[in-house]
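Entry for the shared binder. Reason: the reviewer on the internal report wants the predicted structure included alongside the sequence.
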Amino acid sequence: MNYISDLATSPAAARARAAEPCISGPFPARVKGLDARGERFKFSTALDCLSAAYCEVRLEGVPEPGRHISVATRVHHAVFILRGIVLGVLPRASGARCVAVRITRYRFVRHAESN
């Protein structure tokens, strides 16, 4: 049993996330970090959900719970970088896999130009 993974998938954790206000995506994102083998990865994906302390990122090659990742994203016109710790995998009804991430740091980068 993995304690960090259980934090992401337990019924109590799901209720806590549901009670926290969030912005639902998808929003474009670039993710980088280390995979389960310790090799660096960087690719484009989507951010599905964002709250003050938590986000959900679509990832196929899932890093291990406890690994640190960085997510650069654009939500509406704001561009920022999130850093956090992978909590675990959240399966979706569509079959997609999302990674639950506890945000440990964030940085506002710029206000994107509107098109």
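Summary line for the report: The helical segments are 3-9, 11-19.
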